[in-house]
Design a protein that fits this description.
Oligomer: single chain
Order of helices and strands: EHEEEEHEEHHHHEEE
CATH superfamily: Electron Transport, Fmn-binding Protein, Chain A
Number of domains: 1
Structural class: alpha+beta
Radius of gyration: 20 Å
Shape: elongated
CATH topology: Pnp Oxidase, Chain A
CATH architecture: Roll
Bound molecules: flavin mononucleotide
Number of helices: 6
Number of strands: 10
Length: 197
């Protein structure tokens, strides 16, 4: 065994669900964590962008977006994705498989978006982006006045990423950083390892 070989965490080590619940805010916290969502694009290059973590549960981590977006084309062709969440002194990298979340979940997530993001989901189009500054301001304000309450646009969609691997990185100014990694096998059982940071 070399110094970089993983060490299997001792029995009784908390599973990923327990650690996730410590690291992530509760689903009703209005301050949502940001994640870098990495996908495999049709060109073969990886692609990446920031999305909000809408919520998480026993199934996985959820994000919401526009069904016409590049990321949706990517995950439709190849559901294998990575999520990277970063906090001061901490990083969580998740590899997993993305699938559409239920209609009920998508509706719940829309209700919990801020009013600004609800409106953005209606106006986030290429034609709106092409308007000049004055028109973008006036059309945004006009839409807001005409729609005091909003329901999801038909393009609103959501995905859940079911993890196959979660890597929790923790820094420590007084000693070496370290990662705790969980891998899910084909039967759904988790194995935990300790890795060099
Ligand atoms: C802080 C921040 C949060 C964002 N949150 C989301 C989000 O939750 N959903 C989303 O579709 N786009 C979000 N975006 C925009 C995406 O990063 C991206 O520009 C957009 O979704 C188009 O990505 P695509 O062309 O790769 O599909 C966010 C951007 C930033 C900077």
């Amino acid at each position: 065994m070399t110094a970089l070989d993983p060490v299997v965490a001792p029995p009784g080590t908390a599973g990923p669900d327990e650690l996730l619940s410590v690291w992530l805010p509760s689903n009703d916290d209005p301050v949502r964590p940001l994640m870098t969502l990495s996908t495999v694009s049709s060109s073969g290059y990886p692609d990446a962008r920031t999305v909000l973590l809408s919520e998480y549960d026993d199934t996985g981590l959820y994000f919401h977006t526009d069904s016409r977006s590049r990321k949706v084309a990517d995950v439709t062709a190849n559901p294998r994705v990575a999520l990277t969440l970063l906090w001061p002194g901490r990083q969580l990298v998740v590899q997993g498989d993305a699938s559409r979340s239920s209609a009920e979940e998508q509706a719940w997530a829309y209700e919990h978006r801020s009013r600004y993001l609800q409106q953005l989901s209606w106006l986030n189009t290429a034609s709106f982006a092409a308007l000049d500054g004055a028109a973008r301001l006036s059309q945004w304000a006009e839409f807001g006045h005409e729609h005091p309450s909003l329901t999801p646009p038909p393009t609103w969609t959501g995905f859940v990423v079911r993890p196959v691997r979660l890597t929790f990185w923790e820094g420590d100014p007084d000693t070496a950083s370290r990662r705790t990694e969980y891998r899910r096998d084909a039967d759904g059982a988790w194995t935990a390892s300790l890795l060099a940071g």
